[in-house]
Amino acid sequence: MSQSLQLLTPNPTFSFPHHPSPKPIFHSYSPIISKSNLSLRSQHHPPPSHSAATDLASIEVDAVTETELKENGFRSTRRTKVVCTIGPATCGFEQLEALAVGGMNVARINMCHGTREWHKMVIERVRRLNHEKGYAVAVMMDTEGSEIHMGDLRGASSAKAEDGEIWTFSVRAFDSTLPEHTINVNYEGFAEDVKVGDELLLDGGMVRFEVIEKIGPDVKCRCTDPGLLLPRANLTFWRNGSVVREKNSMLPTISSKDWLDIDFGISEGVDFIAISFVKTAEVINHLRSYIEARSPNSDVALIAKIESIDSVKNLEEIIQVADGAMVARGDLGAQIPLEQVPATQERIVQLCRQLNKPVIVASQLLESMIEYPTPTRAEVADVSEAVRQRADALMLSGESAMGQFPEKALTVLRSVSLRIERWWREQKQYETIAQPSIGTSHSENISEEICNSAAKMANILEVDALFVFTKTGHMASLLSRCRPDCPIFAFTTTPSVRRRLNLQWGLIPFRLSFSDDMETNLNKTFSLLKARNLIKSGDLVIAVSDMMQSIQVMNVP
Ligand SMILES: Nc1ncnc2c1ncn2[C@@H]1O[C@H](COP(=O)(O)OP(=O)(O)O)[C@@H](O)[C@H]1O
Ligand SMILES: C=C(OP(=O)(O)O)C(=O)O
Ligand SMILES: [K+]
Ligand SMILES: [Mg+2]
């Protein structure tokens, strides 16, 4: 038995095309909702017309989600997603599988490090894992970007800079061995541009030096804040309390190496490209046109990394055109005063939510776990705050790429997220902040209102799950944006959409072939999910879809 609110449209079977193409516009609003076709009605579902057994293979959900749902029920599934950077500590097939088992939603490869062959191998392993074990782990490629950074350490994994030591930063080309206390800089004009008295910040300020002397291509510096230097760490220089950025702003956001990496990413079919050091919306538009021209059928989402002063200044226009954003606090903390990072994070998270773009909070979440098996209390508080802000996803960097405890770090993110999410539900802290309307056509506005209402009803009626049948993922993200109290089962026909939805808050993406007929879809879904013990008779569900603009409330038969 179900109750449904149907908003009948002139074309009830349209589906949303993929962003950013324009959505169909309905010319008149008034005939869409009238007294006669805005109805709350009860209906009796016929028994499922086909045997569940024959269709069992046609619903795809990963083993971890399945176990989580069976063991703990809908309420306790994790809503906050996790991105893990893959590196030497986690690139083996078993290690990747352990991360997937631990709840990794997206595997990130950072093009700053490793060779293309290495990245190709990682992508293939993730794909194999998905294929063989039913996961939907998405792959994110993160560009190097053309900011200034130090060279590698000729094989050494790190070097320690002690207080007061004199180090040489040089643009010279050295052969295989670097002289002691010497660091290569990738930017030709470096020796000319720095001045005696400038402060050099490495790795987002983790290690600091003061420039004391310039000798041709060599710059002698004294270490003022000791620490561990990591290969290819980023480098900024500061003068009179602010970052010197004229030079950086002349470098292209996407370097020639980045373009080759992007070609590589497209041909490997990565799900997300994260663009480092975005400064303007234009660079995202440019990249999008490039990808569309080069590979019209590719389904790759563009994530703008907010990590420079310019990106903070142009935040809204950048997020408008991107498919998502990353609060890349590592570099951000080297470009704006550290004490401004928390407020900037909160602003980015809120803005992304308003504009319906997934947002990732990244860098140093559990930094101490690179070396130690337990996090600091302060790190746990930082993770909690990101979860409390309802960011879509948290990201591990060094903790999973080269740390000693990648799986433990993932466990901490998972348990802290679950705890904060539960606390927040127990407090009945529903998200009451009304989100602004973002639709640009009647049909978009209707979809938005349907999702807002469905989420609100789900909270008030305390339903067990929201179901959304979506071809492009758009309706699923509109529901996720409401941050409802129950999980959202997102059914989609395309594997790439399923992987993409894996980055978004509260969505449990399933792959399922379905038709434009909601009645049939619901019956099929219920019988498939019941056969796998993922739902049971009596569970209360609200279903929406982007084929038919309706809200249906029903108990699972
Ligand atoms: N593909 C890789 N190969 C080797 N080391 C890597 C790789 N990816 C990441 N790392 C290591 O993990 C650290 C943290 O990763 P990440 O935060 O992505 O990079 P970065 O520190 O350059 O911003 C890096 O500094 C590097 O030491
Ligand atoms: C995520 C970041 O970028 P990357 O690790 O590529 O420097 C960051 O700077 O925080
Ligand atoms: K990068
Ligand atoms: Mg960065």
Please tell me about this protein's structure.
This protein has 557 residues and is α/β, with parallel strands linked by helices. The protein has three domains: 2-73 and 431-555, Pyruvate Kinase, Chain: A, domain 1; 80-146 and 252-423, Phosphoenolpyruvate-binding domains (TIM Barrel), CATH 3.20.20; 159-250, PK beta-barrel domain-like (M1 Pyruvate Kinase, Domain 3), CATH 2.40.33. Helices cover 35% and strands 21% of the residues. The chain has 19 helices and 25 strands. The strands form four sheets. The protein has an eight-stranded mixed β-sheet, with helices on both faces. It has an eight-stranded parallel β-barrel with strand order 4-5-6-16-17-18-19-20, surrounded by seven helices. A hairpin with a 2-residue loop joins strand 11 and strand 12 (218-225). The termini are close together. Magnesium ion binds at residues 276, 307, 328, 330-331.
List the helices and strands and how they pair.
Layout: E1 2-6, E2 40-43, H1 52-55, E3 59-60, H2 63-72, E4 81-85, H3 93-101, E5 106-110, H4 116-133, E6 138-142, E7 159-161, E8 166-170, E9 182-184, H5 190-193, E10 199-202, E11 207-215, E12 218-225, E13 227-229, E14 235-239, E15 242-243, H6 246-250, H7 256-268, E16 272-275, H8 281-294, E17 301-306, H9 309-313, H10 315-321, E18 324-328, H11 329-335, H12 341-354, E19 359-362, H13 377-388, E20 393-396, H14 398-401, H15 406-426, H16 442-461, E21 465-469, H17 474-481, E22 488-492, H18 495-501, E23 507-512, H19 518-531, E24 540-545, E25 550-555
Parallel strand pairs: 4-5, 4-20, 5-6, 6-16, 8-9, 16-17, 17-18, 18-19, 19-20, 21-22, 21-24, 22-23
Antiparallel strand pairs: 1-2, 1-25, 3-23, 7-13, 8-12, 10-11, 10-14, 11-12, 14-15, 24-25
